[in-house]
Amino acid sequence: MSRSPWRALRHRGMRWWSLANFVSNAGTWMQLTVQNLLVLQITGSAAATGLSMSVQAAPALFMSLLGGAAVDRWPRKLTATVSQALLGAVAFVTALLVALDRLDMTSLMILAAVTGIVATVDGPACALLGNDLVPAEDLPSAIGVGALVHNAGRLTGAALAGVTVGFLGTAAAYAGNGLSFLFVAAVIPFLRPAPGAPGRGEGAARPAAAAPRREQGQDMTVRQGLAFFARRPRLLALAGITGISAVFGRNYQLTLAVLVTGPLAGGAASFGTVSTVLAVGGMLGAVLGARLHRPSVRLVGMLAAVGGLLQVVAGLSPSLAVLLVMVLPMAVVESVSDTAGTAVLQTDPPAHLRGRVLGVWGSIGTVWGLGGPPALGLLMEWAGARGALVAGGLLIAGTIGAGMLLRDRRAAVPVALRPQEGDLTGREALGTAA
Q1: For the CA atoms of 253, 254, 260, 266, what is the dihedral angle to 10 degrees?
Q2: d(CA 273, CA 279)
Q3: Helix (H) or strand (E) segment spanning residue 138
Q4: Number of other CB atoms surrounding residue 262 within 10 Å
Q5: Cα gap 348→3, rounded to integer Å
Q6: CA-CA distance, 46 to 43, in Å (whole number)?
Q7: How far apart are CA 259 and CA 118, in angstroms?
Q8: How many CB atoms lie under 10 A from the CB of residue 270?
Q9: Which one of 131, 213, 224, 248 is at 20 to 30 Å from 278 when CA atoms are compared?
């Protein structure tokens, strides 16, 4: 079995999907870069810039569950196509208002909120659509390739923003993003699911057992997704691991910025170097993560714990050179852990529940994103940058290690039983193992 990180690209649909995602990510980051500058130009307030970003992110906290339910209920390809077209329409409306000099802060906030609402459907729809383009064993490769495409699009979009605004104006950046969404919408109808795909999206026959669920309204509700998530120990464990890592170990733009400019007596250029090393490590980790075949929650936990210990050493770094040496493996481990965790999250639920499970995850992730930086800021106020990195790393490694020990001690001794009617056997049993 191939372990190439690029094996997902053997499939024609994934090649087209990767190209479409690169174009879309470049357009999105071009618009985000320009939008921050535009808000500053309109208001002259950095706080207003942060507010516009929060307004766009806030719908995920309240509406991700509904968005995930919509993805499970509606045809996936149609859902992704419509959501991409709607995002393109919002970008074109914004471009028109900018060109006519009619964009004010109120209309910008409304458009940002609409974008956030549509994204609650578009995110899980596009994620699961991409999964349908490769066999289950190639899913980690697809996720790793997606991470590389995301980073490449981010770098390209940020570079294009300056060039586009300089030569064509701010409105052109929004219009370019609108065109990138339309390109994705045009590609989606021609994508075909791969044999053995984990979900087999539109265009593939659904299992017979799934047919009654579509007919019974109660089985397509948000509550069912919440109940499945709450009853699934491995998903709860994954949420716990990701949550503690996100709060105490992932906000490096905050902790390392304070460490570099404070105890290590560096400047903006030094932190820029650290950020570059973090980005390079993230891309290397995406390639390594793409080589995985059967990621597990245990692997995610082990990588997160290792990342916590590396963070402890980074917090004790006596110089910038030592910090740079530690930052690279930190970013690599984090990226591999992310790839493994995403693969588990997107393959563990049954196909008819995956949209709602991703919706639950979107709401949980928004809580971490909104609450993590303030909590970490308070820790730094109390313990300083070094203390926050060391304490956070020890907390991550200790909590995850303790959880693994408790799970191993509680594991039941396997007993051979005669199979009964309805028992899971073979591949089905493996698919539900924690």
Answers
A1: 80
A2: 10
A3: none
A4: 13
A5: 21
A6: 8
A7: 38
A8: 17
A9: 131
Tell me the residue type at 182: L
- Tell me how far CA of residue 255 lies from CA of 187, 305, 314, 391, 395, in angstroms: 41, 18, 11, 12, 15
Classify residue 132 by burial, with Cβ atoms within 10 Å: 0-12, 13-18, 19+.
buried
Residue among 201, 147, 192, 125 nearest 22 (CA): 147
Task: Let me know: does 65 contact 221? Beta carbons within 8 Å.
Answer: no
Show the DSSP H helices in 135-195 as ranges: 139-168, 170-187
Secondary structure (DSSP) of 351-397: GGGHHHHHHHHHHHHHHHHHHHHHHHHHHHHHHHHHHHHHHHHHHHH
User: Residue 336 and residue 197: Cα distance in Å, rounded?
Assistant: 22
Distance CA 28, CA 122 (A): 14
To 5 degrees, how large is the angle CA 364–CA 366–CA 370?
125
Q: Residue 338's Cα: distance from chain center in Å?
A: 8
Token pair 């000099």: residue: 101
Cut 0.70: pTM above it: yes
By C-alpha distance, which of 394, 380, 154, 381 is closest to 252? Answer: 380
pLDDT digits (tens), the chain, 434 positions: 567 888 999 999 999 999 999 999 999 988 888 887 787 777 776 667 667 767 777 788 888 888 999 999 999 899 999 999 999 999 999 999 999 999 888 898 899 899 999 999 999 999 999 888 999 888 899 988 988 898 888 888 878 888 888 888 889 999 999 999 999 999 999 999 888 776 554 433 343 333 334 434 445 688 888 999 999 999 999 999 999 998 898 888 778 888 998 899 888 788 888 888 888 888 899 889 888 888 899 999 999 999 999 999 999 999 999 999 999 999 999 999 999 999 899 888 998 899 999 999 999 988 887 777 778 888 888 888 899 999 999 999 999 999 999 888 876 545 454 554 444 443 333 333 33
CA 138 to each of CA 6, 215, 421: distance values in angstroms, whole numbers, following the listed order = 9, 32, 32
Instruction: Determine the 3-state secondary structure of 209 from DSSP.
Output: helix
Tell me how far apart the alpha carbons of residues 17 and 25 are, in angstroms, rounded to a whole number: 12
